[in-house]
Design goal:
Layout lengths: L7 H20 L9 E9 L5 E6 L7 E3 L6 E8 L5 E7 L6 H15 L8 E5 L5 E2 L6 H4 L7 H20 L2 E11 L5 E2 L2 H4 L4 H4 L9 E9 L3 E9 L16 H23 L27 H9 L32 E6 L5 E2 L4 E4 L20 E4 L6 H21 L3 E2 L4 E9 L4 E4 L2 E4 L5 E2 L5 E2 L2 E2 L13 H10 L4 H7 L4 E3 L14 E9 L2 E5 L5 E5 L24
Parallel strand pairs: 5-6, 11-12
Antiparallel strand pairs: 1-4, 1-8, 2-3, 2-7, 4-5, 8-10, 8-16, 9-13, 10-11, 14-15, 17-24, 18-19, 20-23, 21-22, 24-25, 25-26
Helix pairs in contact: 2-4, 7-9
Bound molecules: 2-acetamido-2-deoxy-beta-D-glucopyranose (NAG) (3 copies).
């Protein structure tokens, strides 16, 4: 079962985007000035405990870390107007950001830099890999399967974020930022296409696809050194690695980031040697192991463990060399002082976007699963999505990573539109349990959080256990009884959540402490015509805002393109 209920990004992002538009109207009517930013990038290891810790994402108690596929990093950028405001964005190779991690990071940044970096202007986001250690969030729902809080997981993420920001801060130098976007068609499919069809035809007709296929990339160019990095946003789940994988991995986005950083490094070397012979792509680097979903090929475990163990640890190694400005004179022979290239592949509205692009099949019969409920003979446990490298999940990870990497390189090479204008930010704590949301001509209200019966069925990326089914709007008596041991939802909550039957009334459970958040920070960063909206725990709505550039109309629908699915 997956931690995020389907439809999750839909409603949240819709709520957030309404709030966000209002905020924009009120506060971002700044004057356009010619851009002259200070830019700084940083990157630091956040791999965490590689054994005996439950992994975050599939909520599978049996998925316990036992090695490393490849290491995880925090990658950060800072953009500042000289004598003006600044914003920080950190992308974690982790399942999601965490409010308690953010609080700790901000505390440390305040101790170090005073009021320069605060909860107002620091946004932290996760790539949604389902193969990282868990236990670093404060709500019960997110740490049930890790049997509570895991200090080691938490500490390494806090340290890594802090160090990546320190690096970015020390690297701050004059530079420009360019933006580009384009479609990437073969790295994500809708894993619940039948649910998407529940959207009104009129709404669906506005979109070319049933998921958002757009990648948006920003390219950082140092005045002296040229390109020093890029961040891009594209929606696809970090579920190329399966729910039975036990090796820590950044999944497809972590892989893509490494491919791009290696590519740039190699390209620099090639250009430097004036040689055309080296391979352009570094994507063959990550070794492969065979999926354990298919029992017949689950052999050679020891060999796989040896391969995993052969990776050299990079913990504690900064990605960027620190050096004084004086030393960094323009001198092509002194490339060693060049800041290392940082490339992040960030998550965005990935709600129901699966990287398992071949579709979902029954592992017993090999036939496609039931279209409406993603079941095989009525059972959800047998229905799995297949990645392009099926049955090898490592190969699927590599291929989906490679596709994102190649698109990013293309956008990177052709990015010519420069970001110009004010740097700004907005931040607010929003109580999501009682918000009014416009839906067409109606106004509807959100309720305290609750998980439906269908939630427990998981998704085709990671089916749940027992007899739960996707699309279940009835529930069953046995599980209702079990549920009532924990908390019986009151009639108001039942009505509010209808037609979704409540399995766990998480928003109203607070023993021993809160099971799910009610109040969430909503964050907006603005760099010229670019706006990044972030709600920790979710992805980011990422829009290229065009009130200034008139490049394209601002489209709030973007954020809930996938569908609203009532029954989960
Ligand atoms: C370069 O790429 C080719 C084909 O993709 C591959 O056969 C070859 O082994 C690669 N060479 C190196 C040095 O990686
Ligand atoms: C899925 O459900 C819809 C609506 O209930 C129904 O019309 C359709 O025939 C079903 N499709 C399949 C393949 O079962
Ligand atoms: C959030 O809003 C709900 C409903 O209005 C209210 O009951 C709850 O106390 C609020 N939560 C907090 C922490 O203020």
């Amino acid at each position: 079962m997956e931690i995020f209920p389907r439809g999750y990004s839909g409603i949240w992002l819709q709520i957030a985007s309404v709030w966000f538009l209002v905020a924009l109207m009120q506060n971002f009517r700044g004057s356009l000035s010619t851009s002259n930013y200070l830019i700084g990038l940083g990157s630091y290891d956040i791999t965490g405990p590689a054994a005996d810790v439950n992994m975050m994402g599939y909520a599978n108690t049996e998925q316990i870390a036992s090695g490393v596929h490849f290491r995880l990093r925090a990658r950060a950028f800072i953009v500042a107007e000289p004598q003006g405001s600044r914003v920080v964005y950190v992308n974690l190779d982790a399942c999601m950001a965490s409010q308690i991690v953010t609080i700790k990071v901000i505390e440390r940044l305040k101790a170090r830099y005073g009021g320069l970096y605060t909860e107002q202007n620091v946004a932290i986001s996760g790539i949604h890999t389902h193969a990282g250690p868990g236990g670093y969030l404060q709500y019960v729902v997110y740490i049930v399967t890790s049997l509570g809080f895991v200090r080691q997981s938490f500490d390494v993420i806090v340290d890594g974020i802090e160090k990546s920001i320190i690096q970015a801060h020390e690297n701050l130098r004059p530079g420009s930022i360019f933006v580009n976007n384009g479609e990437l068609l073969d790295a994500g499919v809708n894993r619940s296409p039948s649910s998407y069809l529940n959207n009104p035809a009129e709404e669906r007709s506005k979109y070319k696809y049933d998921v958002d296929k757009e990648m948006t990339l920003i390219k950082f160019v140092d005045d002296e050194w040229g390109a020093v990095g890029s961040f891009n946003w594209f929606a696809t789940h970090g579920t190329s690695m399966s729910r039975t994988n036990s090796l820590i991995s950044g999944d497809n986005k972590g892989a893509a980031a490494r491919f791009m950083e290696d590519w740039f490094e190699k390209k620099g070397r090639v250009e430097n040697l004036d040689s055309q012979h080296a391979n352009k792509s570094g994507t063959a680097k990550i070794p492969r192991r065979v999926s354990s979903i298919v029992p017949s090929i689950n052999e050679n475990r020891n060999e796989a463990m040896e391969v995993a163990a052969s990776f050299k640890s990079s913990q504690g190694q900064p990605a960027t060399r620190f050096s004084s400005v004086a030393k960094r004179v323009r001198n092509s022979l002194r490339l060693a002082d060049r800041p290392q290239f940082v490339s992040a592949f960030c998550q965005t509205n990935c709600g129901d976007v699966s990287p398992n692009v071949l579709g979902a099949f029954c592992i017993d019969t090999g036939l496609p699963c039931d279209f409406n409920q993603s079941t095989c003979n009525g059972k959800n446990e047998q229905c799995y999505g297949r990645g392009p490298g099926y049955p090898d999940e490592f190969e699927s990870t590599r291929i989906i990573g490679d596709r994102q990497f190649k698109k990013a390189v293309e956008l990177f090479n052709k990015a010519t539109e420069q970001l110009k204008g004010k740097v700004g930010y907005r931040h607010a704590y929003v109580n999501f349990s009682n918000l009014e949301v416009a839906q067409g001509n109606d106004v509807v209200k959100t309720c305290p959080a609750a998980m439906g019966f269908a939630f427990a069925a998981g998704t085709t990326d990671g089916p749940g256990a027992f007899d739960f089914k996707q699309g279940d709007d009835k529930g069953n008596a046995f599980w209702r009884l079990v549920r009532d041991f924990l908390k019986t939802p009151n009639q108001e909550q039942v009505n509010c959540q209808r037609p979704k039957p409540i399995l766990l009334d998480t928003g109203e459970m607070d023993k021993p402490y809160a099971w799910a958040p009610a109040i969430l920070p909503v964050q907006i960063l603005r760099i010229g015509q670019l706006v990044i909206l972030s709600v920790p725990g979710g992805g980011n709505i990422f829009v290229v805002f065009s009130f200034f550039l008139q490049r394209k109309a601002f489209d709030t629908n973007k954020s809930y393109i996938q569908r609203w699915h009532l029954v989960q």
